[in-house]
Design goal:
single chain; about 80 residues; alpha+beta; two-stranded parallel sheet; 3 helices; elongated
Protein backbone atom coordinates (compact mmCIF):
# COMPACT_ATOMS: atom_id res chain seq x y z
CA UNK A 1 0.00 0.00 0.00
CA UNK A 2 1.48 3.34 -1.02
CA UNK A 3 1.58 6.03 1.64
CA UNK A 4 1.27 9.58 0.31
CA UNK A 5 2.59 11.19 3.45
CA UNK A 6 4.24 9.86 6.55
CA UNK A 7 3.22 10.26 10.15
CA UNK A 8 0.80 8.85 12.71
CA UNK A 9 -2.30 9.57 10.61
CA UNK A 10 -0.87 7.71 7.62
CA UNK A 11 0.06 4.77 9.86
CA UNK A 12 -3.43 4.71 11.38
CA UNK A 13 -5.01 4.76 7.90
CA UNK A 14 -2.72 1.94 6.79
CA UNK A 15 -3.57 -0.15 9.87
CA UNK A 16 -7.31 0.42 9.37
CA UNK A 17 -7.01 -0.58 5.70
CA UNK A 18 -5.18 -3.76 6.66
CA UNK A 19 -7.91 -4.66 9.15
CA UNK A 20 -10.53 -4.21 6.41
CA UNK A 21 -8.55 -6.59 4.21
CA UNK A 22 -7.21 -4.00 1.78
CA UNK A 23 -4.48 -5.47 -0.37
CA UNK A 24 -5.50 -9.07 0.37
CA UNK A 25 -8.51 -9.30 -1.88
CA UNK A 26 -10.50 -10.47 1.16
CA UNK A 27 -13.06 -8.11 2.65
CA UNK A 28 -14.06 -8.11 6.30
CA UNK A 29 -16.53 -10.92 6.90
CA UNK A 30 -15.14 -13.07 4.08
CA UNK A 31 -14.98 -16.75 5.19
CA UNK A 32 -11.32 -17.04 4.21
CA UNK A 33 -10.43 -14.22 6.64
CA UNK A 34 -11.96 -16.25 9.48
CA UNK A 35 -9.95 -19.30 8.39
CA UNK A 36 -6.77 -17.23 8.19
CA UNK A 37 -7.39 -16.00 11.73
CA UNK A 38 -7.89 -19.58 12.95
CA UNK A 39 -4.64 -20.66 11.29
CA UNK A 40 -2.75 -17.68 12.75
CA UNK A 41 -4.02 -18.38 16.26
CA UNK A 42 -3.21 -22.09 16.03
CA UNK A 43 -6.81 -23.27 16.36
CA UNK A 44 -6.65 -24.70 12.84
CA UNK A 45 -3.58 -26.49 11.54
CA UNK A 46 -3.31 -27.51 7.90
CA UNK A 47 -1.98 -31.06 7.54
CA UNK A 48 1.02 -31.31 5.21
CA UNK A 49 1.39 -34.71 3.59
CA UNK A 50 4.39 -34.04 1.36
CA UNK A 51 6.85 -31.26 0.62
CA UNK A 52 8.77 -30.81 -2.60
CA UNK A 53 11.36 -28.33 -3.76
CA UNK A 54 10.28 -26.42 -6.84
CA UNK A 55 12.38 -28.71 -9.04
CA UNK A 56 10.24 -31.62 -7.79
CA UNK A 57 7.04 -30.20 -9.26
CA UNK A 58 6.63 -33.22 -11.56
CA UNK A 59 6.71 -35.61 -8.59
CA UNK A 60 4.29 -33.39 -6.66
CA UNK A 61 1.90 -33.36 -9.60
CA UNK A 62 2.18 -37.13 -10.01
CA UNK A 63 1.29 -37.58 -6.33
CA UNK A 64 -1.62 -35.19 -6.68
CA UNK A 65 -3.20 -36.95 -9.66
CA UNK A 66 -2.50 -40.43 -8.28
CA UNK A 67 -5.24 -40.06 -5.70
CA UNK A 68 -2.87 -41.22 -2.95
CA UNK A 69 -2.11 -37.84 -1.41
CA UNK A 70 -3.34 -38.00 2.18
CA UNK A 71 -2.94 -34.31 2.98
CA UNK A 72 -1.77 -31.07 1.40
CA UNK A 73 1.16 -31.06 -1.01
CA UNK A 74 3.51 -28.12 -0.55
CA UNK A 75 5.97 -26.77 -3.11
CA UNK A 76 8.66 -24.55 -1.66
CA UNK A 77 11.34 -22.27 -3.00
CA UNK A 78 14.60 -22.55 -1.10
CA UNK A 79 14.57 -24.37 2.21
CA UNK A 80 11.31 -25.52 3.81
Amino acid sequence: MAVVRRGPRAAAARDAACERGAGTGLRAGHPARALAGSVSSGRLRPVIGAQFALDGVARAHALSVSGHARAKIVLYIGRP
